[in-house]
């Protein structure tokens, strides 16, 4: 098979996004900052935060209604789920979510299940469409998909990310119990427990990166010939989200002026602020990927797209100003 071997040797290797399109970290950072300002990322993140705020309570109603049907109302599993799901939030904001969810899920039933599902899809899909529109702006393309396809993608992403959240929470909540059961069965309960305590955090980070990868792959109206499980934009987005969330928690721990000034309304403002920085992190990661691909295309990488191109080598169809 000398001919096949020769073809394999001469076949061009797929460019890695981790080459940063030939840019240095400083050059990439400056271009991303310019893109953030040009595409009004900070303004659009406010729209996303607004959608998240309206989606979070129906989402918990829906999830807890399902648990209420399966395990009965007011079960320890329901309370544990809410506590863990709000752990990343600032403490004051988490208290608001926990209080509202507790008050609105006293009685579980099919009506509440349907109501929570409908509200969640409407509100969360609205936030997702804002993300999709902003990522189109990052690649400087006009939305060309039909209304039904656009909405179907938004709903699909919303449902997929919701499933990822539920699976991740289930692994974190019940991973120790599963590890203990398996460990006892094979006679290594102590080893299994400690192994899981170490492994659960990489697993949680993987689910975050996977959620970001789904958003960056399906949201913009451009074609990607290769699926990347981990992209520089996803890593940057997750890192920025974790860093800002931690910084916000530290700030509110020492300088909780919102609650002192606005009372109970301050907690809602803190929750909205956390959703805002989450939106900024998601959009900033998308800007990173867009700038890397644009730089790679200008250096002649055949599979990369310049801004305004939906496919490599096609005529740019830039967005209207």
Describe this structure in words.
This protein is an all-alpha fold and 321 residues long. It has one domain (40-298). Helix content is 75%, strand content 0%. The protein has eleven helices and no strands. It has helices at residues 2-10, 25-38, 41-71, 76-85, 91-104, 110-138, 147-186, 189-218, 232-254, 257-262, 264-298. Helix 3 runs antiparallel to helix 6 (110-138), helix 6 packs across helix 11 and helix 8 packs across helix 9 (232-254). The radius of gyration is 22 Å and the shape is globular. It starts with a helix and ends in a 23-residue tail after the last helix. The model is unreliable at 1-12 (pLDDT under 50).
- Rg measurement, Å: 22 Å
Q: Please count the beta strands (DSSP E, at least 2 residues each).
A: 0
Largest sheet: none
Number of helices: 11
How big a fraction of the residues is strand? under 5%
Tell me the distance between the termini: 55 Å
Q: Roughly what is the average pLDDT, rounded to an integer?
A: 75
Give the SSE string. HHHHHHHHHHH
Integer count of domains:
1
Shape: globular
Tags for this model:
disordered N terminus, 11 helices, single chain, mainly alpha, 321 residues, globular, 75% helix
Task: Give the topology.
Blueprint: H1 2-10, H2 25-38, H3 41-71, H4 76-85, H5 91-104, H6 110-138, H7 147-186, H8 189-218, H9 232-254, H10 257-262, H11 264-298
């Amino acid at each position: 098979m000398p001919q096949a071997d020769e073809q394999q040797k001469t076949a061009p290797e797929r460019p890695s996004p981790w080459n940063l399109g030939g840019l240095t970290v400083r050059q990439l950072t400056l271009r991303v900052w310019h893109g953030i300002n040009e595409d009004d990322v900070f303004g659009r993140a406010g729209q996303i935060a607004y959608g998240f705020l309206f989606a979070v309570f129906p989402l918990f109603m829906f999830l807890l209604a399902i648990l209420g049907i399966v395990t009965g109302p007011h079960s320890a599993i329901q309370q544990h789920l809410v506590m863990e799901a709000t752990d990343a939030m600032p403490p004051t904001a988490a208290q608001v979510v926990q209080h509202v969810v507790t008050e609105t899920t006293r009685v579980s039933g099919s009506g509440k299940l349907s109501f929570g599902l409908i509200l969640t899809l409407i509100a969360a899909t609205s936030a997702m469409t804002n993300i999709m529109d902003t990522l189109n702006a990052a690649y400087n393309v006009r939305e060309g998909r039909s209304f039904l396809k656009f909405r179907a993608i938004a709903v699909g992403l919303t449902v997929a990310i919701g499933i990822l959240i539920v699976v991740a929470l289930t692994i974190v909540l019940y991973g120790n119990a599963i590890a203990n059961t398996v460990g006892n069965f094979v006679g290594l309960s102590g080893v299994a427990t400690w192994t899981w305590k170490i492994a659960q955090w990489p697993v949680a980070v993987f689910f975050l990166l996977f959620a970001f990868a789904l958003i960056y792959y399906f949201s913009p109206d451009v074609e990607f010939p290769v699926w990347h499980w981990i992209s520089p934009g996803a890593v940057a987005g997750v890192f920025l989200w974790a860093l800002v969330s931690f910084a916000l928690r530290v700030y509110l721990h020492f300088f909780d002026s919102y609650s002192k000034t606005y009372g109970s309304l301050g907690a809602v403002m803190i929750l909205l602020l956390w959703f805002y920085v989450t939106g900024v992190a998601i959009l900033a990661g998308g800007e990173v990927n867009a700038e890397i691909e644009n730089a790679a295309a200008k250096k002649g990488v055949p599979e990369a797209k310049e801004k305004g191109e939906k496919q490599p080598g096609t005529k740019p169809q830039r967005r209207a100003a």
